[in-house]
Write a structure and sequence with these properties.
Length: 149
């Protein structure tokens, strides 16, 4: 399943520092609830580090790379590795991080990400109740995480 060019523990460490597990909820005109919820796994680096993101993408054999231009902010170009497909998240990303456990603060985000994935698996992201549950989970992740917890 996983290619061996990179050590899985190297990837885990990389994600601890640069990765992101996220839930997005946006307005959507054609969806029944008028909302679209998604799970996202991403790693974003300066563009000159694109080769490592290519290797991580090859390791997982899913997701995609996108080059980002932040010139208007005076920043260097960046590259993002992203997995937005729920099937790939469920069958590849989550099993990987369950096997190779995160140890730092991203571990909490991953646990909450898995909780959100369970809601998606049951179709909860298509209901108002499920969207509200996802909002509560999202409010505890990433920049909203309480310091030291």
């Amino acid at each position: 399943m996983f290619k061996k060019e990179l050590s899985p523990w190297y990837i885990v460490g990389f994600v601890e520092g640069e990765g992101c597990f996220a839930i997005t909820i946006s307005k959507h005109k054609t969806k029944k609830l008028g909302k679209d919820a998604r799970l996202i796994f991403e790693i974003e680096l300066r563009g000159d580090d694109k080769p490592i993101l290519e290797k991580i993408k090859d390791y997982f054999d899913c997701g995609y790379l996108v080059d980002l231009n932040y010139q208007r902010y005076g920043w260097m170009p960046h590259t993002k590795y992203a997995v937005h497909s729920f099937i790939e998240i469920k069958k590849i990303i989550i099993p990987f991080f369950k096997k190779y456990n995160l140890k730092g603060k991203k571990k909490k985000d991953f646990i909450l990400f898995c909780e959100a994935a369970r809601i998606f698996s049951k179709g909860g992201h298509l209901t108002e109740k499920g969207i509200e549950e996802l909002k509560v989970i999202r409010s505890q992740m990433n920049e909203h995480r309480q310091f030291g917890k």
